[in-house]
Amino acid sequence: MSTHTSTVRPGATLAEGRPAGPATQPPRRRSAAARRLRRRALIPALCFLAPMLALYGVYYLYAFVFLGQTSRENVDLSFSGATDAGWRNFRLVLTDPLFWKSIENNLLFAAVQIAVALTLGFFLAVSLSSGVRFRRFFYIAFLLPSLVPLSLFATVFGQMIQTNGGALNQTLSDLGLASLAQDWTGSPTAAYVAVFLLLTYLIGLPIMYYTSDLTMVNTAVLEAAQIDGARTGQMLRLVLFPMLRTTHKTVILSVLLGSFRWFELIYFSTGGQPSGGTGIAGTYIYGQMFPSTGSAEIGYASAASVIVLLIAIAVSAVNVLVQRRRP
Amino acid sequence: MRKEAQLGRLLGTAGAAVALILTAAACGNSGGVGGSSNAAQASVAAGQSVTLNYWTWFPAQTTLQKSIDAFEKANPGIKINLREFTNTNYQTELPLALGGGQSLDIVGVQVSAMTNSVRKNLRPVSDWASDLPSNWQSQINSTMLDQTQKIAQDDTLYSIPMGSIGSAFVYSNQALLAKAGITAEPTTSAELAADVAKIKATEPGVTPVAFSGESWWQDEVFFTVADQIDPKLSDELYTGKVAWNSPQMVKALTAYQNLFSSGTLGTGTLSLKEADADNAFNSGKAAFLLEGSWDSSVLSSAYRQANGISVADVGAGYLPVSVAGGSPAARTYAEGGLAIPKSSQHVAQAAKFIQFMTLSQQGESTWAPDLVLVPSLNGYTVPSSVLTSPAAQSGYQTIAQTIDAGGSGRGEYSTTFTSDVLDNSLLQVARSQITPQAEAAKLQSAWASGRYPLQ
């Protein structure tokens, strides 16, 4: 057993944590011991993981296989009497401009929320952490929209942006700004603005991510910056922001992948209007599964789901790649 | 090196997931399970009671309970176990339940929307017609029966329709109309425009015409306008007899656009949901309501009272004619089909209940006064106690006559072209974001793309 102590950074493996200095045991023997240790830990780990792996197998792998199968069939909601569709469903999805519009919207909305989270969310988190008055109230106010069910939140927002009698237009009129009142779901630009507003409300979780990491920031660095004469803006931009790089990554990845699950947000607020202009992948697939008129096209919707899944995997892989290459 | 290895593992896992899905896709075409087979009939000993499992979405549960109570009283050996769903949920739940082999004895079928998604698990009516009176077909409106059979892709009758519905119609708040000096239901778009102007002048806080801005409702209004040119125009569009960029189509789109550009229908109202529009009318905040015949319950003073609707008197009429030389129209279709699934082990008893609901005056009188459907039973008339005012009586008569006149089939041609392309496009036409000509060309191009075959 080694008698010296070593500093192992969080997340590093035992092998990585080995000090560079002279070792009391030959490296090969230490590595073998580590392997044995890992092997011994494997069985209890697998025991703990087994229930979740079984659930994963049943609910995810089966669902993927089922999705893959139905994507090449012509089949309705009864799932009976399916006929072979070959790759037709995939071809049709890939040539549908509305599908690509929905993917574009997904990425656009994710980009907007990332931008809002990294700027406004970061600024609010720092401001609240600096001990402003009523900060508990503000935390609740910012976090609440992220805690209530998205469908409820989006439904209320949908009511607010109604053209006639909606709270937003009514407030603008009451403030003497009637010229700014819009047909929020009628004009493409206004509808985008409405969705962006909605996304801005949802920065509660990024604020929480930043707030929790701000408590771990080494204040000596800030004090040093202050002594060196850094102004508040400079401290935020040049010191604090880079120090929270790990949090930025968490925020970016969670928003990016989460954006593919914003179905309720869009469905209950703008309903994808105008003319599918604010639709996202989720609303597009739902529209094919449960069309307001016509029969459900399960095969087509499955093909669209498979393509969206592949796009989401590709987006996250690219994101990880970019993050890892950054110094 | 370690980072690269981790990245490699990540991409490897993603690749494995992709491979799994694509393999499943490549191995697809299970061919489905096809329809189920008829369940064997349970033997019922003398004096033994039978419980029938009944799933439906219509009529309202309180109404249906009256029907069930009356049926059980008349048939002491049969009990009904009812499960009622909301309209949209039912369209999903029933096909899945029947496909999964759920044992049900009676099911309500939305004739145009659901027949083909459940027919493989239903018994054709011919299988249990021997349990009905021999002359049963002559007792039911032949058009509705014909529609119910025709909608099935194999041209087989799977359910007996309780009645028929149609759209679009105009309901009116008689008190608001009287206040504005309007003495009759508008019959042309010019008259409606004049009425709207009067209401705006006398009641500035009232929405002149409330209607749903949901995309599905736009084609209901549009096709009603189109069928004013030719009552079969929408049928002909879907069957390819008339092109989507034909002169009639452009004329219909122009008339539809004019309703909005003239201010008769407000584009601001397009952000309302159906429930919002109904609420506005029911609370006296709208003078007219564009709705389907399924909303005719508001004509009944008893219904209004029971449901807290504050409007004292309601009238109704057809959608005002919006094209020169046009005639009143409505797309209609049989609705409220009652069917027996293959999984039922009590076919004779289930048929008895269906007979009670569709072929007997007693059964009919338990649900028909709700006015949601124009009943299919020949010779049935709504009791005079239901429609208490001349406006309501005349309104209901207009709706029933327009539906009886027959027109294009409402929801008969099943394709997502309507929801994917047409409905969204109509919203653009209504907002004058596209010309009728350009819109017609766009529709024809999408129709001819092959993406939307009729199902």
Characterization of this structure:
The complex is a heterodimer of chains A (327) and B (455). Chain A is mostly helical. Chain A has a single domain (88-325), classed as MetI-like (MetI-like fold, Orthogonal Bundle), CATH 1.10.3720. Chain A has helices at residues 27-70, 88-94, 97-129, 135-147, 150-160, 167-174, 188-201, 204-214, 219-227, 232-243, 245-258, 263-267, 281-289, 298-325; strands at 73-74, 83-84. In chain A, helix 3 (97-129) packs antiparallel against helix 11 (245-258). Mean pLDDT of chain B is 91; it is low at 28-34. In chain B, helix 2 (61-74) links the parallel strand 1 (50-56) and strand 2. Chain B has two domains: 50-165 and 333-387, Periplasmic binding protein-like II (D-Maltodextrin-Binding Protein, domain 2); 167-331 and 408-447, Periplasmic binding protein-like II (D-Maltodextrin-Binding Protein, domain 2, 3-Layer(aba) Sandwich). Chain B has helices at 2-26, 61-74, 87-99, 111-118, 125-128, 136-139, 142-150, 174-179, 189-202, 215-229, 233-238, 247-261, 274-282, 301-306, 347-359, 361-367, 390-405, 417-430, 436-447, and strands at 50-56, 78-84, 106-109, 160-167, 169-173, 207-210, 286-291, 314-318, 331-339, 374-375. Chain B is globular, with a radius of gyration of 25 Å. In chain B, helix 10 (215-229) packs across helix 18 (417-430). Chain B has 19 helices and ten strands. Chain B is 46% helix and 13% strand. At the A-B interface, helix 1, strand 2 and helix 14 of A face helix 1, helix 3, helix 4, helix 10 and helix 18 of B.
